[in-house]
Amino acid sequence: MSTANPDYGTPRGREHYPPQYPQDGGRPQSQYTQYAQSRRSRSRPPPVDEQQYDYGPGTEMPPALDGDDFYTGSQANFHDPPSIASQSVRAPSPPPGPILDHSHLRPGNQASLLSHDRTLELYRANAKKTQDPDLIFEFAVFMIDASKTMPIPAPTSGNVMDVEKALEKREELIREAIALLKRNADRGHMPSQYFLADCYANGIGTHKNRQDFDRAFPLFVLAAKHGHPDAAYRAGTCCENGWGCRRESAKALTFYKKAAAALHPGAMYRLGIAELNGELSLSKSPKEGVKWLKRSAEHATAEFPHALHELALLHERGVDNVLFVDNEYAAELLAQAAELGYAPSAYKLGECYEYGKMGCPQDPALSIHYYNIAAQQNHRDACFALTAWYLVGSPGVLPQSDTEAYLWAKKAAEAGLVKAMYAVGYFSEVGIGTEPELPEAIRWYKRAADLGDKRAAQRLKSSSKGPIATPGGPGAVLHRDNDGSDSGSGKGRDKDCVIM
Q1: Beta bridge pairs of residue 450
Q2: Which residues pair with 67 in a beta bridge?
Q3: 1-27+38-85+263-378 architecture in CATH?
Q4: Of 28, 160, 377, 405, which residue has the fewest beta carbons closer than 10 angstroms?
Q5: Considering only the top CATH level, what class is 379-500?
Q6: Longest dimension (CA), the chain
Q7: 108 pLDDT more than 70
Q8: Which regions are flagged for Polar residues bias (predicted)?
C-alpha cells in the first residue's frame, strides 16, 4: 500500500482532486445512459497518487461532479452510523461515433483550430445526413453537453445584450436536442427514452428549468420495459419516493428486482439494505440482506461503491449467525471503496490508521493519505481531521502549519461541523493561522453556541472581557510547545488536543 507524500503542506496554486462524494438527501440529479456504457465501459478512477493530495484547502477547488442521490427515503437503521442510500455520479459523455470525430480538436501537427460554433455545425450537418437513431442520439447528447460548457459572459452594465444572446443560444441548443430525443423516443429508441427522462428529472428542457418527474417517470418505465437497468433502478426510486407517481413500495420492489437481475449494483444494494432493515414492506432478513450486499459489492463501481462500505461495517461488528467479525477483511473492503472514490470509506480508513483501529497499524502517512482523499471531496470530518494533523504535524510526513490548520477547520465549519465552528472561533480569537480578530471569533462562537456547543457559549462570555493573549488556558483548543511541537506522547498527535 502506498504511503503519503511528505509535502502535504504546499497548497497554493494547485487544483484539488475533483470531489466525488455526493451529499445525502435531495432529488435525483443526472446519470448518462446505458447506451453510452455499452459503447465504452466505465473506467474506474485511477489509482490514488499521493502527489495529488499534497495541498490544502487554500486552493480553489473545481466544481463537484453532478451527484445522483436517487434514494432519500428512510435511512437504514441496521447499524450505526446509518446506511447511506444508493447514489451515483454522472458518467462520461457517450463516446463519439464515426461521424462525431474529435480528432480535429486534438493537439498535434495535424490539428486545426475550429470555433465552437463551427464544430457544432459540422456535427449538425453530419447528423442530418443519417437516419441512424444511435447517431442522432449521440448528437443530441453532444448538444446537451455543449449547452453546459458554453461560455456565458460575466454580466456587466455594458454587455446585457451579449449575455442574453448567449443564454438564448444555450436554450436553443437544448430545445434542438430535446426535439431529437423526443423523436427518437417516440420511435422506441431505448437510450433516448432514458436520457430524455434523465433530462426532465434534472430540469433540462423543462418549464423554468424545474424538475419534471411527471414526464420523466413514464419514460423511465418505458426504457425499463425495454431492458434498461438504470431506467429500472430510477423507476424504482420514483415509486419508492413518490416522484411523478404514487408512492408504492411493491412497485418499487419490482423495479429494483428487475434492475438487480441485470446486475445493477445500486439496485442490489438497495435490496440488501431493505432486507436488513425490513423496508419496502419486506420482513427483516439479515441473511438475505447480506447476500444482496455481497452481490452488489462484487459489481461495485465508482457510482455505486456503497455495498463495500456497508459490508465492511457489518464485518467490523459481526451479525449473529450470518457474518463473523473480520477486521482485516473489513479494512480490505474499505480500501476497495476508497479506491473507487467513496469518501466515507476513506475517512474511516484515515481513523483506522491514525488510532490503530480494526487491526490497522498506527501510520501517520496512511492516515493523512486517506483523510486527504475524503477531504478533497468536501467530507467535513476529514477536513477537520486534517486540521488536527496540521496543528502538530508529523515528522517526515506532514509539516506543522497553523495556516493550513485554520483553513481546513474553516472548510469543515462552513460545511456545518459544529466543533469546527468552535475551533475557527478560537483560532480567530487568539490568532492561530490567521490574524486575531475578535468580531470574527464571536461570529463563529455564536454559530456554534446556537447549535449547542457549550464551549462556544463559555468563550462568548469570556470574550466580553477581551481576547485571550496567547493560546492555552481554560477551554483552549490545544496545548503545545512554542516551537509548534505537540506536548503529548510524541506520536504526532497531542493527547490534550481537544478540538476533536
Answers
A1: none
A2: 89
A3: Alpha Horseshoe (1.25)
A4: 160
A5: mainly alpha
A6: 78
A7: no
A8: 28-37
